[in-house]
Amino acid sequence: MTTAQASKIIASTRELADFHGGIHPQEMKSLSNQTPISKAALPPQLILPLQQHIGNASKVIVEVGQQVLKGQILAEADGFVSVNLHAPTSGRIESISEHAIAHPSGQSDLCLTLTPDGQDQWCTLNSSEDVTQLSAFEIQTKVRQAGIAGMGGAGFPTDIKLQPPKHANIDTLILNAAECEPYITSDDRLLRERADEVVAGLNIVSSVLQTTTCLIGIEDNKPEAIAALKTATQDSNIEICVIPTKYPSGGEKQLIKILTGKEVPNGKIPADIGVVCQNVGTVAAIYRAVRFGEPLISRITTLTGLQIQQRGNVEVLLGTPINWLLSQYGYQAAKRERLIMGGPMMGFTLTETDIPVVKTTNCILAPNETELPLAPPAQACIRCGLCADACPAELLPQQLYWFARGQEYEKAEHHNLFDCIECGACSFVCPSSIPLVQYYRHAKGEIKQQRADQQKSDQARVRFEARQQRLENEQAEKAAKRKARAEAAAKAQAAKKLAESQEIVIDSAKTDSKQADLIQENQNNQSKAAVEVLDLSELKTAWDKAQSKLDKMYDALDAAKENNPEQVTKLSRAVEKNQMRVNQTKQAWLKASAKTESETSTAVITATESETKAESRSTSDANIKPDLAALETAYDKADSKLAKLENALANAAPEQVEKLTRAVNKNKDRVASAKAELETAQAALSRTDNNAMPEPPVEPVIEIDIPALQLAFEKADSKLAKLENALANAKPEQVEKLTRAVNKNKDRVKAAQDELEQARLNAAASTTTPVNDSGT
Amino acid sequence: MSIALSVILTAIVALLGLALAFGTLLGFASVRFKVEGNPIVDEIDSILPQTQCGQCGHPGCRPYAEGIAAGEDINKCPPGGEATIQALADLLDVEATPLDAEHGEEKGKMVAVIREPECIGCTKCIQACPIDAILGSAKHMHTVIASECTGCDLCVEPCPVDCIDMVPVDQGISSWHWNSPKDMKIIATDKAASIDNEGAIH
């Protein structure tokens, strides 16, 4: 039957479009399409690569040495874009190891090796008598279970094609029966012999996708297949579209263009324009999977090329080694052996011959040198433009060639390199026999590599920046903690001071009331003083104890600094705490002693009024002197501590410097205050001494007594004024101290005034005294 | 005379007004559309391979990017190699210079592998890794997350028991891509002869 006759048989009403370019290579199909499909024998060993499809490699679920049945799952789909792998026959798993696979790189990949036991015993299959009763989901599940991947050559998992994205409105299903590549006849033979299976499979797919239009695109060089299809589709609404023979009309995008006139946009898939394409072999496999539950364990492969004697199509188990298969069909290796998997246009030369047949092996071509000579050496591009005329994707192959060769990949991308379907039409027409497609494949690989590298480097940058951020945050957190601790300590200190000042206010109030009491109950004075003294001694002991403990801790800290560096911080913290305690006790003692002093002095004043001056002087002397001594010791101690601390600061580790500096400053303040107190006390003592010295001989020196008293009074008055002035300008923390000093001085001024008046009265009383002019 | 003066005055006033208006506009734009940082640094940084190896003498790729922006040489990045130098030269419109051997030589992609039985769990390599690609804790075995490792080599030096190896990245079948065809020979007969010779020799 000729092409013309075939066209007459089926008069399709559909208006066919045409795609740009295309070529007409020698078909060579008659080499293999003359004989019916034969069944290959059971090979001694089956090699099953875990990756025979696009997507993730399957995950092995059997063990070495395990006995498996025909159709049993050996490796599961790993993820969404992956498929199951089944045992093509019953037997024993021999090994799971690296083996050469059908790949242009000639590299090895992980494979299962199965030794058949010859029983060919099926596992239980889940068949369905009436496939029309099955829901779409059930069909999808069965297809997924059966491990079907696109058998036209790409190997995309078929179940994914049966669940198109939700937004896609699929209205057209196309069966790709064009089989445009020379030599290959597996679809042709399949259609001739099993057209009913193919049509049943097509109906199943159509029902799942609920398409309104179902088209079969077939080239007019397969009249027998067209006739078989016509018979099989008599009662259905499937439309057979016979298209003119032109390579590469079997390209998915090209076939869609021919049949529907629509073009798949750049970067999109056919589903985006409402079309799904299926291969003939895939559809037949879907039928067998849904109807009989048979997984994909065999396929029809064309064995062709003049080096093979029994050319034809053969149904072969997946995993059959190619060299064994070819030896069964009278293959004679040529001198320079060349085996091609796939067709002469898009296939690749095998580097090994013991590689297995996989789900995508549609043809094994063993040409001799005359029928398919090696490409002659490439020559310079003459810019003839034939490649651009031939390109079915309407690209500019010449430009792409320059960019790919000059490694200007960005420009190549801008010229839509990724729309190239690698059909080889440009290389075929090139008068300089430049291997254009190889350049494009290389450029695509390089670009993908660069993208992957860029992605990885971006990831590394993100991780690096995240790490930097983390380190910075840790540092900041530490600093914040340190600051918070310091602030808390300062706050505690301030709170303590506030409490103390409040206590003093209360104390002074108490003192006032006590003063009143004292004026009334003079007698009780002594006993009360005794109680105070007792308190005072108790406080002193507490202070001493705390001080000695602190000293011990200092020793421990020094020892630790030398021997045990990690305890230094702990110890220094303890020291700090103890120092605080020492200070507290000291403050308490100082306060108590100051109180006693003031009380006693008040007592003295009251006593002066009632008792004799001599008595009062002796009492005040007795009180001031031990006070002075105590103050001196306090000052010395504070000074020595300061020296110690300064010493420690000089030797301190950098992280302690801050703490120590603070401690030193505190202590300096303390030393200064102690010194000031001491000086005040000394001054007071000396004054009382001065006052006391000339006074004992009261009666004889009354003449100089009055001026002296006057002088003392004036001095005291001026000092009081000075102090009051100082108080007005004083800092908040000094107010308390100054107030106390002012009060003390006021008392003293009053006493001096009293004394002066008394002396004057005395002087006035003794009329015999001649010299009284100097005093007034 | 007075007319001429008024014309001059008008011109001056008009020009001053324009200057003031445009000055305000420019001032506003410079505040409103201020670009934070130096955008060229980002562009340079995106070209650098982000191994963070420090072979250039900077503590990471971004500091080197800043250095390049400030006028440093572009040939100090061994992991990036000639491709990076070329890309930087294109970006900055300077001449591409060969890689400075002082900073190391271009090697293939490497990945760090810890010989795990020998690891003593000292965490030194974890601290050295600039991208946190090593997992482990004190006194427990550490391991490298191979997919994150940039092969910068910084973890090798601190290891006290030398249990870290730098191995070439396994170019598996999934990352394989076609080689570029060999460049053509002008005279076809030479090419054919050379094929025969090659076949005979190898």
Describe the structure.
- The complex is a heterodimer of chains A (776) and B (202).
- Chain A is α/β, with parallel strands linked by helices.
- Chain A is 54% helix and 10% strand.
- Chain A contains 19 helices and 17 strands.
- Chain A has helices at 3-9, 136-146, 158-161, 186-209, 223-232, 252-260, 280-292, 322-328, 386-390, 397-405, 409-414, 425-429, 436-520, 525-563, 568-610, 613-651, 654-692, 702-729, 732-765, and strands at residues 38-39, 46-49, 59-60, 67-68, 73-76, 85-86, 91-100, 108-116, 172-176, 213-219, 239-243, 275-279, 298-304, 312-317, 340-341, 348-349, 363-365.
- Among the domains of chain B are: 39-103, Orthogonal Bundle (3-methyladenine DNA Glycosylase II, Chain A, domain 3); 110-170, Alpha-Beta Plaits (2-Layer Sandwich), CATH 3.30.70.
- Helices cover 40% and strands 7% of the residues of chain B.
- Chain B has helices spanning 2-32, 39-47, 61-69, 81-92, 124-128, 188-201, and strands at 110-114, 134-135, 143-144, 164-168.
- Chain B has a two-stranded antiparallel ribbon. A two-stranded antiparallel ribbon of chain B has the order 2-3.
- The N and C termini of chain B lie far apart (101 Å).
- Classes of the chains: A alpha/beta (776), B mainly alpha (202).
- Chain A binds chain B through residues 51, 101, 103-105, 107-109, 376-380, 404-405, 434-435, 438-439, 441-442, 444-446, 448-449, 452-453, 456-461, 463-464, 466-468, and chain B through 45-46, 48-52, 60-62, 130-133, 148, 150, 172-173, 175-181, 184-186, 188, 191-192.
